[in-house]
């Protein structure tokens, strides 16, 4: 035993075992190409999963699973980890049987039309990178800190390259009454036949009837074979399994714009039709529930986005908002898309409070939670875009706090 | 202006097809099918097809937030729900407390309920079960028959009918919200102490965060079981 | 039977069954969130797989699987469909045991260092979208047409968002001898311990030591946990399972830069160290082996890229290169990344020959196969970046042809 | 110039560690371990550990292109392989026809072969098996012992040693290649007829293309079994 122990010590002094003794993969023959016709992540990555937040909803078919932002890089969300929000469960629809109808009552649409997927995919298409964020992202923290990690505080957020035909192309070919048309209703083919009102201005601008996501078809959980992409607007408007577009002259006050996704104000009124996701950012590493390995240098990294345009600047504070430095932005910086930021930090082992603050192309500066509360109270659920604070304790553990 | 070269792609929708899908009902009742249903019929439908999830009185919090509760006769008169005001201790925000437009309920029940068998109700059943919900909330009497003829009147009794405000800045992309910060960079005014921390019981409520982080990298997940 | 048939006819006159009879997914309850913690494509997409080209190689651990470009959208390649090229098989390496060594003989590196993945992932990182193309992409067609579809003619091509530390950051912190350092050797940890020479200019410019691909860690087939990203340069230089960076003053003439990836010229010499992937493009839909559904309008779409910079323009011909029109480019248009192009086309039912021709930021115009051959002959295997021609026959079937 | 704040990340490499991994051998033989091996030893190694894949005489095309073949005594004198010239009918481009640098072979055999058991050869076995390959190609005689002392001389007998050209424009990002087109837009000069088509037997050689295309969209895969 003594001999073995000293042999081990000698080896350690010489260097690391994983270098000195070549591993099996350096001295053997690996697996063939196309072992997996459709590849999977490494088995060592199994911790990165989308997960439900226990207690948030009562049934999993009307629930949310959150994207593990704590472990992601860049701006593209792996489609397998795209957050989910279903109201009546998800389906894997036979795309050859799927139809899209475009119409309107009372001659609002001159030529009501039906499109197959074959038809739609022949039309002139665009490919654009956009974020999608649930209007209720960060909702549990209007009042106090409630959630342990960035997966649950900010994980109803994803960003993908979408491909499809502009809704304006469809509306124009169906001949809408441009004088009377004010709104569009988008309707899904799931059990809830989810419906949402879109303004005609945005419908004629950058809304996409999309089939492609990150180079392939949409995933079933995200609306295969067809969903609406409404850049900058809360996820619930991005109707999945899109089956119908109806043109009209009045907002529809659908269930999810009359009972939910309405913001309760201090005076007891609800704000209705608050679709825009305002400028927001969050540090993803280090973040809540993570532990720093050591003192010293860290590349602090995070995401910034704005439903109103592009990200112009992100500042980061390490002292709870007293002093700020401007972070590096990675390209591409695109409208209504996530932007990745990075900033140098040397941790001296003392407690520190990390915050990020984004500024968008309109000049809007991401607010503090107390500024939001001063106007909107603590009960509005939706559109919580406050600066997030992470406390790094002396033991290196990072936890969720509110500081302002 | 000439047609685009893709003008002929797709085909005209047939009237029966539009009819089959054109189910939406607007706040001005455009789209509402003619018909009627009594509270009594509604009670039968509710007990057979809804109560298992929503509770006999629409009070259940098991599967979803309660449908009924928290509204008063006074609310029905004012068209504003007092329990939505700050300081209210009412434990839930029920459907009837929030919804301003009766069309929303008709449309939604018709398209989506019962949850596990949506679009199975007949027109009179939708009227009836909505009448039943409204009766539970004291909006209509027990012997009421809701119909396309009187629904606009009932709308005038919705407890929160005056509770909605259209807030344009968050509807328009080119709007400007009501909350904005300034980009102070040095010696900015903040309180030294931490205002809120993660409650101890919440630390482990989402499972062990250690198992939700990568096994390599600049950080590890904290073992939240300890 | 007669009654049934006439009932069917009546129904058909009224409209389509798939609209008139609501499908199960519109009248039922779907699946819960997080049914799959890591999501998968729709079962209806199973035809899109990466596949080997029979006869190209003799053993599948030293082979290629091709990306199904015929069915992809935008510029991001789904990681599960990223093409594979292995020389001694692939591995799923335990990342906690993986090490990167940076060193050089004779004091070429002042401070030879060993990095764990923990170390590397703390360093300042960048996230950038780049294409990777095998130097042998399109190789079987130097002489004549040989392959039935774009998956096999051009499918050794993918494009992803990569995240990692710039190689220059590592070289600077290890202290290289800037006067003497001329080249860098990159070495993998697989059985072949793949080695490639990189110029110090590029090593100090945009080469990335990457762990992230499309938001998550690299897939095992693509080098998990660490690979080199050498923008614009043939895929074989993007060493997977990267274990070692050595700084030196002479090119190494490794097996894959002395026996393969050398270009045989008409005079019997080989060109050595021909790494750059020059400007190229291809129409992906419609493409070889596809059949147009009908006459009429099509959105013709494809990809363009250049190892020397950005794509400036893509022209498309429908008459075998006699007349050309300029295509729409989708954003973002990034250096050494794929660029998606689209162009309108109305097929009149007559035979047509489709070609695309890319122009990059250096002014280089993608050549015709005869122009390539005039200089390089037909035996150089690598760097075949000729204009691709697709013949649309009267029956709508598209086939691979050469026209110039 | 000050160290960057991340200067201390990582750790110094230990000499034994560098030695364990520093295996590359350059064309100037930097990195080549001292040692030697005979054709005779190489023959034993080859027959036991290489021939099953590469053939007894390095001629096999079963697992990879042949290692040996296609070179002549004349090539060895000239340092250029005639069979690489245009019009040659030699069926394969073997390793020995192409490789200009003997270091490449030493380095590669040492790091990668045998394919299913790489890095298992002793230094003298690498010298020996390389000597054996060179003997098969008539570069060295049957009784030769290859060593770090004489390898530079053997380099001077490599059949294709003068066959490599460094082509800088495809090495440098800012280079400019030798083939370039002009962006003609109208009435460009092209031949009307098709120069090459997919051979009939190649249409189905990759499986049925119908099954390699999506079941929806603007196109279908052609049924190439018909
Ligand atoms: C199997 C369970 C189940 C049954 C049965 C059921 N519901 Fe529901 N109901 C739900 C769930 C879950 C939701 C919330 C869906 C969502 O998240 O969008 C809901 C939502 C509703 C809502 C909207 C509530 C709100 O505030 O958004 C109404 C109204 C409603 N149900 C009425 C009915 C009626 C009427 C019936 C019977 C005809 C019925 N439900 C049967 C589960 C059920
Ligand atoms: C199990 C099969 C197998 C065995 C055993 C094997 N090889 Fe190989 N060898 C291969 C394959 C496959 C390749 C090509 C690898 C690649 O694609 O990079 C190769 C490549 C080579 C090459 C480079 C050829 C070229 O042109 O790139 C040499 C030299 C070589 N082997 C020598 C040997 C020697 C010496 C041995 C025994 C000590 C050996 N091989 C044992 C399969 C084998
Ligand atoms: Ca071994
Ligand atoms: Ca659940
Ligand atoms: Ca340390
Ligand atoms: Ca048609
Ligand atoms: Ca049903
Ligand atoms: Ca095979
Ligand atoms: Co939502
Ligand atoms: Co290659």
Q: Tell me the number of helical segments of chain A per DSSP (H or I, 4 or more residues long).
A: 8
Helix share, percent of chain B:
25-40%
CATH superfamily of the largest domain in chain A, by name, is Oxidoreductase, molybdopterin-binding domain
SSE-based structural type of chain A: alpha+beta
State the secondary-structure class of chain B.
alpha+beta
Shape of chain B: extended
Overall shape of chain A: it is globular
CATH classification, class level of the largest domain in chain A: Alpha Beta
Q: Give the beta-strand count of chain B.
A: 6
Characterise this structure.
The complex is a heterotetramer, with two copies of chain A (404 residues) and two copies of chain B (226 residues). Chain A has two domains: 193 residues, Sulfite Oxidase, Chain A, domain 2 (Alpha-Beta Complex), CATH 3.90.420; 122 residues, Immunoglobulin-like (Sandwich). With 404 residues, chain A is of the alpha+beta class. In chain A, the strands form six sheets. Chain A has a five-stranded mixed beta sheet. In chain A, strands 5, 6, 9, 10 and 11 form a five-stranded antiparallel beta sheet that branches. Chain B has 226 residues and is an alpha+beta fold. Chain B has a domain of 155 residues: Cytochrome c-like domain (Cytochrome Bc1 Complex, Chain D, domain 2). Chain B contains eight helices and six strands; from the N terminus they run E-H-E-H-H-H-H-H-H-E-H-E-E-E. Chain B is extended, with a radius of gyration of 25 Å. Chains in contact: A-B, A-C, A-D, B-C, C-D. The interface between A and B is large, with 127 and 101 residues.
């Amino acid at each position: 035993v003594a001999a073995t122990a000293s042999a081990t010590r000698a080896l350690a002094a010489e260097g690391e075992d994983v270098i000195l003794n070549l591993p099996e993969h350096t001295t053997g023959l690996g697996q063939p190409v196309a072992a997996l016709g459709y590849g999977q992540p490494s088995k060592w990555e199994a911790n990165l999963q989308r997960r439900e937040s226990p207690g948030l909803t009562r049934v999993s078919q009307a629930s949310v699973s959150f994207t593990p932002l704590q472990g992601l890089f860049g701006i593209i969300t792996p489609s397998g980890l795209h957050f989910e929000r279903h109201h009546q469960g998800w389906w894997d629809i036979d795309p050859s049987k799927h139809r899209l109808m475009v119409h309107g009552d009372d001659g609002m649409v001159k030529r009501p039309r039906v499109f197959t997927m074959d038809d739609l995919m022949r039309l002139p298409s665009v490919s654009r990178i956009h974020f999608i964020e649930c209007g209720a992202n960060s909702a549990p923290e209007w009042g106090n800190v409630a959630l342990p990690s960035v997966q649950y505080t900010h994980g109803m957020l994803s960003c993908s390259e979408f491909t499809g035909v502009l809704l304006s192309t469809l509306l124009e070919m169906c001949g809408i009454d441009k004088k009377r048309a004010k709104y569009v209703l988008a309707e899904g083919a799931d059990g809830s036949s989810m419906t949402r009102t879109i303004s005609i201005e945005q419908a004629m601008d950058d809304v996409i009837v999309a089939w492609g996501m990150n180079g392939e078809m949409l995933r079933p959980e995200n609306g295969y074979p067809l969903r609406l992409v409404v850049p900058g607007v809360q996820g619930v408007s991005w109707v999945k399994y899109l089956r119908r577009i109806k043109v009209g002259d009045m907002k529809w006050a659908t269930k999810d714009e009359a009972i939910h996704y309405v913001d309760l104000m201090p005076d007891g009124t609800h704000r209705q039709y608050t679709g825009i996701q305002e400028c927001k950012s969050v540090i993803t590493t280090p973040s809540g529930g993570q532990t720093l390995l050591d003192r010293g240098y860290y590349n602090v990294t995070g995401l910034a986005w704005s439903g109103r345009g592009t990200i112009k600047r992100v500042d980061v504070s390490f002292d709870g908002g007293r002093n700020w430095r401007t972070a590096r932005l990675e390209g591409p910086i695109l409208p209504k898309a996530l932007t990745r930021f990075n900033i140098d930090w040397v941790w001296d082992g003392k407690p520190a409070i990390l915050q990020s603050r984004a500024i968008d192309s309109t000049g809007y500066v991401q607010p503090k939670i107390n500024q939001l509360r001063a106007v909107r109270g603590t009960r509005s659920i939706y559109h919580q875009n406050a600066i997030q604070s992470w406390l790094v304790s002396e033991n290196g553990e990072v936890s969720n706090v509110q500081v302002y | 202006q000439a047609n685009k070269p893709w003008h002929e792609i797709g085909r005209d929708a047939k009237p029966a097809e539009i009819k089959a899908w054109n189910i939406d009902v607007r706040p001005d009742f455009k789209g509402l099918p003619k018909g009627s249903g009594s509270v009594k019929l509604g009670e039968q439908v509710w007990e057979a097809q809804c109560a298992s999830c929503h509770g006999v009185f629409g009070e259940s919090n098991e599967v979803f937030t309660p449908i009924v509760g928290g509204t008063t006769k006074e609310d029905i008169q004012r068209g504003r729900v007092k329990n939505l005001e700050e300081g209210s201790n009412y434990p839930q925000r029920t459907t009837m407390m929030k919804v301003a437009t009766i069309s929303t309920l008709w449309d939604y029940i018709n398209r989506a309920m019962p949850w596990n068998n949506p679009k199975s109700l007949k027109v009179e059943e939708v009227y009836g079960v909505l009448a039943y919900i409204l009766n539970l909330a004291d909006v209509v009497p027990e012997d009421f028959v809701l119909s396309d003829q009187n629904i606009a009147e009932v709308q005038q009794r919705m407890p929160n009918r005056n509770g909605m405000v259209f807030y344009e800045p968050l509807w328009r992309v080119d709007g400007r919200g009501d909350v904005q910060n300034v980009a102070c960079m040095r010696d900015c005014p903040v309180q030294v102490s931490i205002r809120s921390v993660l409650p101890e019981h919440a630390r482990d409520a989402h499972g062990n965060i250690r198992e939700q982080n990568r096994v390599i990298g600049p950080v590890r997940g904290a073992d939240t079981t300890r």
